[in-house]
Amino acid sequence: MSVTIIIVSYKSDSRIQKCLKNLGKKYKKIIIDTSKDMSLKTKIEKKFPKTKVILTSNNGYGAAMNYGVKKAKTKYVFMSTPDILLNNKTIKNLLSAAKKLNDNFAFLSPVTKTSKNKSFIEVENCKGYAIFVDRKKFQKFGGWDKNFFLFYEDHDLCMRYNEIKKKIYLIPNAKVKHVVGGFYKNDAINEIDICKNWHFMWSKFYFYKKYNGLIYAYIITFPFMIRSFIKTLFYFFTNKNRFKIYYARLSGLLNAYTNNKSWFRPFIKVN
Fold it and tell me: What phi, psi does 18 have (nearest 5°)?
């Protein structure tokens, strides 16, 4: 087949199995597991045909996707997360759209809601949790910006394509279901929430610095720093869990201000 489905997974073994069952047996699948879960690899490769699990270090969504794209051999790749469930004609309809466009697109995205519009919808930006690309063109373009560990990497991708006037399309007859919640194991939820808040602020500053300049990035994020500082002090005395969240936000932003890389990782014990 001409499509490989690439999924980035982290501490989401129950969800990834549900996702793979929904994908069926037709297409090749590459799972990039950034938690280095050997038991998951053994279980998945034994249970699901045409599926390869690659264990890597936790360097972020974009870096993991770039690695998956490098490992794929097909003309097209469909990049997704474990919380996406496909309609049985999603990939087929994306392939059909690519042919109709003569591969003249940046990337194609399925939709989560039923649309009355039957023609392709040109957009400037869309969510990055499910995108369809020509593999070689995507690699030549540079792939995902690996400096983003989490958040804003899809905004960045769209902005870069907009700058070179490559078109992004929503494909109304390509449907997906985005299943929110229940993504991680219970023992990982708190640490991942802390990690998300740290990277949300780091990525926000980095994104605005990249496209609007350093001064604008400081101006747009300074109110967030003040609020995070005040709430960190308040919750230090009243709520331990909320304190960790706002301290993470403050730390993420201060690290971005001082030009540190997006180094923070969740601390999760390995069983």
Answer: -65, -40
